[in-house]
């Protein structure tokens, strides 16, 4: 197991070395350790599946790749070449699919491994790191920091969410401030509280300074 994890680390460091939207190797590594910490506190789930799915959860994310299905096949071949247990390969890929924001918005999360990895991924999207990653992503995608004329969207399709006109500040209200209430584990909920409060304070100060207040 240690060897496949090491090989996976090497693969990801190469695949994500030029990533500048906040979905880089360091994000994957943070999610891995957050997931393992949640697993330790919850004392549930298969730690190997949790660690591998956490490390690989962005490998074929459609917002990062033009051909996500090709990337999924590529990852499946990598796993099959390194793991003798085909069931483990299926569980890893299934866990990644279950935490997808695109396919599982509002749907129940059926496995503890997916609950833990999803909580870890969403924790890295909020708080201080989450703020930094949000502005990195918005800048990479050419979004304005803020424009009061562009209103926060309350209802949208996935395509509108991904490609519609918005701002980085609006993204906090459209998604990030909602993540605290989507946490699946007791540990995730506890960890999300402080990060959520930090985002709220940041937004309060941002809008105050935006309006030229001392």
Task: Write a concise synopsis of the structure shown.
This protein has 214 residues and is mainly α. The chain has helices at residues 2-15, 25-42, 47-56, 68-82, 86-98, 112-123, 127-140, 158-163, 168-174, 186-210.
The secondary structure category is mainly alpha
What is the end-to-end distance?
A: 56 Å
Biggest β-sheet strands, sense, barrel = none
Task: Categorize the overall geometry.
Answer: globular
- Tell me the count of domains: 1
Mean pLDDT, all residues: 93
- Strand proportion, as a percent range, falls in under 5%
Tally of strands: 0
CATH class: Mainly Alpha
Number of helices: 10
| Relative helix content | 55-70%
Radius of gyration: 18 Å
| CATH architecture label | Orthogonal Bundle
Oligomer kind = single chain
Write down the secondary-structure element order: HHHHHHHHHH
Low-confidence stretches: none
The name CATH uses for the topology is: Hypothetical protein af1432
Organism: Pallidibacillus pasinlerensis
InterPro entries: HD/PDEase_dom, HD_domain
Protein name: HD domain-containing protein
Pfam family, one: HD
